[in-house]
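Quick bug: N-carbamoylputrescine amidase output formatted oddly.
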Amino acid sequence: MRVALVQQKYCKDRADMVADTTRQIEEASQHGAELVVLQELHQTEYFCQTEDVKFFEYADNYENDIAYWSSVAKQNSVVLVTSLFERRAAGLYHNTAVVFDSDGSMAGKYRKMHIPDDPGFYEKFYFTPGDIGFEPIDTSVGRLGVLICWDQWYPEAARIMTLKGAEILIYPTAIGWFESDSQSEKERQLDSWITIQRSHAIANAVPLISCNRVGFEADSSGVMEGVEFWGHSFICGAQGEMLSQAHTDETILYADIDHSRTKEVRDIWPFLRDRRVDEYSCLLRRYCD
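Here's what came back:
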């Protein structure tokens, strides 16, 4: 199966961003992609750098967004993983990945479960934690374990998706550093980000797609220095082997994924067989003291 991810910089406004993303999906389809993954909150700038109620307006078009990306998936005959700002009700919003099958039907959605609250990443102000669990989404190209950004630091999320039959892990992402960070700190952050996700692929013997934003985005409030999204999106196989990796430019990244590799790897590395499920009760507690 040929898969693609779209690594982008934010354009000048939402309309241009949507138009550019649509062109990238069309190009990916023309190059044989059956599955296309977009970055976190791909329609707009990463507005969570500051807390401002005006940005809730970005969720007002959620139903129209659904209709639009459904049509794009259908027109290009691709399974499409989007990342949208969902307005569920007045005052109730989610960071939601919506997956469309190649016929344009909505295959399912995932609401981000782990919500960060750090300088420059004030997501708790905007998003309510997900409440529909870790449920893989069945599509014409397989069962997708879709998670979002901060979820990628939690092995429990990847494991639960795998135990429920996910055949591939997917992470739309928006992560970067501050210019004031030292070069060594930047290198440590990037290396940690790649390593933790490759470890999920290895521990669960499933391929993984991680799609990040790229480029500098200023803090609209002027309080923070802005975030340089570091890109480096990648696709790895069931043993964590790199199949394809981007750098810090805008790009469409492709890879061919062989689902049969999961069985081959699990036959030689039977991690699921040897789990001590009778001894993991401590995982259900905040801290085991």
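Actually, after a second look the formatting is fine. Residues 18 and 57 are 16 Å apart (CA to CA). Closing.
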